[in-house]
Amino acid sequence: MGTRLLLFLPWLLLLLLLPSHAVTAFRFTVDDFPHDFTFGAGTAAFQYEGAVAEDGRSPSIWNTFAHSARNPNEHSGDIACDGYHKYKEDVKLIKDIGLTAYRFSISWSRLIPDGRGAINPKGLQFYNDMINELVKQGIQIHAVIYHLDLPQILEDEYGGWLSPRIVVAHWTTILEPNIIAQGSYDKGIAAPGHCSFPFGRDCTVGNSSVEPYLYLHYSLLAHSSVVGLYREKYQVVQKGVVGINLYSLCIYALTDSAEDIQATERANDFLFGSILHPFLFGDYPESMKKAAGVRLPSFSSYESKLVTGAFDFVGLNHYSSIYASNNPDASNMPVRDQAADVGALFRETRDGQTVTQYPAGRMVDPQGLEQVLKYIREKYGNIGIYIQENGRGQIDDDDDDLMDVERIDYLKKYITATLKAIRDGASVKGYSVWALMDMYEIFGGYKAHFGLIRVDFRNPRRQRQPRLSAHWYSNFLKNNATIQVESGAATATSHAQI
Ligand SMILES: *[C@@H]1O[C@H](CO)[C@@H](O)[C@H](O)[C@H]1NC(C)=O
Ligand SMILES: *[C@@H]1O[C@H](CO)[C@@H](O)[C@H](O)[C@H]1NC(C)=O
């Protein structure tokens, strides 16, 4: 009898300790993350720096695009946040919030105005000064290189530009090549605005059927060359890591039908597999090869070897989830879609929004992030991941948007999802909010606000003002405040301790 009681007791205790399903409160502090996990926030050169014609900088394709008729908003971004002049103030804000990492990008046209050749000393000075300021404050450097010749600069300027104090730099080569292929060369809604009829509006230059695949292919090759060079020449000294960035969505099948499930797999192959499959297996996924045929370039055996394993981590920009369904009426679709370039017909069903209505009204679905991380792990192995962008945008003309409780709610849910994914076995190493401050957003100009910090774009002095979300993030990072999320369904409201 005594033995039976002893066997029974632990089970009773366990039952008593298990939370009931009605009250699924999830509580944690920053201490619950791995000790080397980084929490940051980000900016991007063109959207942040301004000073477009100052100190020898030449225009970039985004300047041209923003001044062209193709730009859907009325702003040019020439001043942006005036970060070129205000970066010191911003590094102080970064420090005050308690961020451990700052993600920024390097403007090629500021550093090498002619594209190739001579380095602009003033451009170099700017990044040098900014990096030194960050290093002085103990902030980790997470730099994004949009343009791929940077290692040449590293070669020429190593030691001058890269202070030896920067050990463990995080380099991301290219931002979102998996979605930029569509935006820039298919629909023509992002610089340089290439498209061809009937896939974009008012197309003047481009070929939507072919160019997205060329862009994707050359991005992969260029990225992989950079990785090879970095590993060969700099990694040992710098002890840094190098990776690529992907735009990420959780894609749900619209229905349980086999067709929709297959459509979802195709969509995932195009979104993730277009990059990750070559990294792991040296080639594109079968479904892409089948859908795109000869328009998808093939890897030579040299290229295949170059691409395989060419990453230390993968960065994800993750905001939302969508539904995919099969389109059975292929005869009614333009030629390019018949070949199912995106593998499925993307559409958002909730709130009646379509994908093109970025950035407003997107689905808040933190479980989608967990699902994406699980999908990648199951399909491509437990690769190191940085969540490089996550955040909530508001289209807002209202001056008084400092009390951004909805942003806090969003961040809280996605940070919770990140921790849950880590506990589930995902190798997530960092999380970065988009954005540190309001910027010139690619879609929405000065009217789309993503910032923890508000920027007054109506005033040329561009004053910064931390929002409630900045204080909340700071409280989490610096004061060990508890986040508590009570959730039943994916869309349940959550209540936070802070
Ligand atoms: C795009 O390129 C393909 C292959 O070269 C060609 O067949 C097609 O006509 C081109 N389309 C346009 C709109 O130029
Ligand atoms: C942070 O808070 C948690 C939970 O309250 C506690 O266990 C932990 O010791 C705290 N850490 C620090 C550094 O105060």
Automatic annotation (TrEMBL):
Entry keyword Electron transport: no
Highest taxon of source: Eukaryota
A GO MF label: beta-glucosidase activity
Secretion signal, residue range per the UniProt entry: 1-25
GO BP term, pick one: carbohydrate metabolic process
InterPro entries xref list: GH, GH_1_N_CS, Glyco_hydro_1
Keywords: Disulfide bond, Glycosidase, Hydrolase, Signal
PANTHER family with a match to the protein in the record: BETA-GLUCOSIDASE 20 (PTHR10353:SF204), GLYCOSYL HYDROLASE (PTHR10353)
Subunit and interaction comment: Homo- and heterodimer.
Family membership noted in the UniProt record: Belongs to the glycosyl hydrolase 1 family.
Protein name per Swiss-Prot or TrEMBL: Beta-glucosidase
Native species: Panicum virgatum
